[in-house]
Amino acid sequence: MLCILPDTHPLHQQDKIYFEQIKNEMFIMPKSNIDKDVRKILKNNNVTPEIQYEVEEDQAIIAMVQNNLGISILPEMILYRIPNNVCVINLEGDNYRSIGIAATSLKNISPAAGKFIEYVKLWLNVQE
Q: Once rounded to an integer, what is the mean pLDDT over residues 30-39?
């Protein structure tokens, strides 16, 4: 999980964002399943954000940050096409979310499902 903020934000040149620094920021909260992870991270770091907006669509959140409507925390996986004027900065600590793939039997999955799992592992740099 990473912090995104506009390149005009005072913290935009930092290598790492500390939760103490963002506790009073205008915040754009993801509304899908991501919000549970973000809320947990904020709660674990004693931050009660000033939520300005709750938005379902990831790209809408990025556009809102781009237009100086607030900052947000999003998973790294969705931050692959970021506009040049949006900064992606690591948060202090080890903040992540787990992703799982379920199948009744990995021995009996279809060839397409097997290829998909191989692709996901490569994409996430996971070793067996």
A: 82
